[in-house]
TrEMBL record:
Annotated family: Belongs to the UPF0260 family.
Alphabetical list of NCBIfam families matching this protein: PRK05170.1-5, PRK05170.2-5
HAMAP family in the cross-refs: UPF0260 (MF_00676)
Name of the protein described by the UniProt record: UPF0260 protein FAP39_07840
InterPro entries membership: Puta_zinc/iron-chelating_dom, UCP006173
Origin species: Shimia litoralis
């Protein structure tokens, strides 16, 4: 069974993301933009020469690939110190490696949210129904040595 969605999207202004710049969003609005796809929790391979980033299906050790959520979100830095806390201030720096369907990246690129986004459908299930989340298809980083990650590169969008 999928865990309850931890993102509170109640009481938000209608289509606030179209009326406010990212830097002006309050904390609840910012968090609500996350569609819960889990793709930013996949390990990435970056080409040192070209800077190209490839996503793999090898998931961070803390990702639950049924709910597509971090199992230790509040204390995750104790286990994964390098996990990024994305904010409006550091989005410029990180957008290039974010998944192509990520709402933060899409809005940063001046694009619209996709029709399956939970803010538009009213249900977090829509991201899974659209086949855009990592639900059920990751492999564990514990069981997958880093030298094999190249064999697990995925194409985007999925
Ligand atoms: S890729 Fe973006 S939308 Fe998907 S879980 Fe990560 S932050 Fe949320
Ligand atoms: S620590 Fe949690 S939020 Fe960070 S990459 Fe891993 S699963 Fe995702």
């Amino acid at each position: 069974m999928t865990a309850k969605d931890p993102i509170d999207r109640r009481g938000l202004s209608r289509r606030f993301w179209e009326r406010k710049p990212l830097a002006k969003l309050n904390q609840q609005e910012w968090e609500a933009l996350c569609d819960g796809c889990g793709k930013c929790c996949l390990n990435k391979l970056e080409d040192a020469d070209t800077g190209d980033v490839a996503l793999t299906r090898v998931a961070c050790r803390l990702l639950d690939d049924e709910s597509c959520r971090c199992t230790q979100y509040d204390i995750r830095h104790q286990f994964v110190p390098e996990c990024i806390v994305l904010t409006p201030k550091n989005l410029d720096e990180h957008a290039y490696w974010m998944p192509q369907t990520c709402a933060y990246r899409l809005l940063w690129e001046g694009k619209s949210l996709p029709e399956w986004h939970p803010l538009l459908t009213g249900t977090p299930k829509s991201v899974h129904d659209a086949g855009v989340s990592v639900q059920g298809w990751t492999v564990s980083e514990f069981e997958t040595p880093e030298e094999d990650w190249e064999d697990h590169i995925i194409e985007e969008p999925i």
